[in-house]
């Protein structure tokens, strides 16, 4: 009996900017998404390609789903991938920087906090962030001693109530910082979103994945 070949492909995405910025890339590949995750509660979304479905996940979970094979490929920010790799190294293939959802990882403080002087004097800083690995590496390279406080949201609140001296967070327009009386004082790195691929999927079913990888690559070049 002839074995049936599994042609189905699962793409993991997060809601918001990454999802919205991925739509034009999919459209360049001739793929339309059936509905918006902002308007639907569905966590699995079908597309115009009967062999491609999309999982809607929390951004930090995308690389985990891909690494363990629950998704064949996914799109995640460099910030998320650095943190994931620190915990689970070597598990993901990252073939394409899609150059979408661009922003930056930055240090921010209250407007009345003299960050330069504090760092210059060698004082110990309390820094709140969910980007533990990137933050630790950044301040270690500067020779600044820090106490890390891990938070998962509402980062801007930490300096306002005395929980931390500074935060490290993703900054896009800076409007949220400004609205909360904070200012970015130092950029750590530029961030963009990358395509990540499950290595076993690529090895065993690369013939089905490769056309989509090629389409993403072409679409990315068109949008640069």
From TrEMBL:
Keywords: Amino-acid biosynthesis, ATP-binding, Cytoplasm, Glycosyltransferase, Histidine biosynthesis, Nucleotide-binding, Transferase. It is found in: Cytoplasm. It catalyses: 1-(5-phospho-beta-D-ribosyl)-ATP + diphosphate = 5-phospho-alpha-D-ribose 1-diphosphate + ATP. Catalyzes the condensation of ATP and 5-phosphoribose 1-diphosphate to form N'-(5'-phosphoribosyl)-ATP (PR-ATP). Has a crucial role in the pathway because the rate of histidine biosynthesis seems to be controlled primarily by regulation of HisG enzymatic activity. Belongs to the ATP phosphoribosyltransferase family. Short subfamily. Its main location: cytoplasm. Lacks the C-terminal regulatory region which is replaced by HisZ. Its EC number is 2.4.2.17. It holds the Pfam family HisG. One of its GO terms (molecular function) is ATP phosphoribosyltransferase activity. Pathway: Amino-acid biosynthesis; L-histidine biosynthesis; L-histidine from 5-phospho-alpha-D-ribose 1-diphosphate: step 1/9. GO terms for cellular component: cytoplasm. GO terms for biological process: L-histidine biosynthetic process. It is an enzyme of class 2 (transferase). Heteromultimer composed of HisG and HisZ subunits. It comes from the Bacteria. InterPro entries: ATP_PRibTrfase_cat, ATP_PRibTrfase_CS, ATP_PRibTrfase_HisG, ATP_PRibTrfase_HisG_short. This is ATP phosphoribosyltransferase. Residues 58-211 form the ATP phosphoribosyltransferase catalytic domain. It comes from Candidatus Kinetoplastidibacterium galati TCC219.
């Amino acid at each position: 009996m002839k074995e049936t070949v599994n042609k189905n492909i699962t793409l993991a995405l997060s809601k918001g900017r990454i999802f919205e910025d991925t739509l034009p890339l999919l459209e360049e590949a001739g793929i339309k998404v059936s509905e918006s995750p902002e308007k639907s509660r569905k966590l699995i979304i079908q597309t115009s390609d009967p062999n491609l479905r999309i999982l809607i996940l929390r951004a930090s979970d995308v690389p985990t789903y891909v690494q363990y094979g629950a998704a064949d490929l996914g799109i995640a920010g460099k910030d998320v991938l650095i943190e994931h790799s620190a915990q689970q190294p070597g598990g993901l293939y990252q073939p394409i920087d899609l150059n979408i959802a661009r922003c930056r990882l930055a240090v921010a403080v209250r407007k009345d906090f003299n960050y330069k002087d504090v760092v210059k004097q060698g004082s110990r800083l309390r820094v709140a962030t969910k980007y533990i690995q990137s933050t630790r590496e950044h301040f270690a390279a500067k020779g600044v001693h820090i106490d890390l406080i891990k938070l998962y949201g509402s980062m801007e609140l930490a300096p306002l109530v005395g929980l931390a001296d500074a935060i490290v967070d993703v900054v896009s327009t800076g409007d949220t910082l400004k609205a909360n009386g904070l200012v970015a004082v130092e950029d750590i790195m530029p961030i963009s979103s990358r395509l990540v691929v499950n290595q076993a999927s690529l090895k065993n079913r690369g013939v089905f994945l490769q056309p989509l990888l090629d389409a993403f690559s072409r679409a990315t070049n068109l949008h640069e």
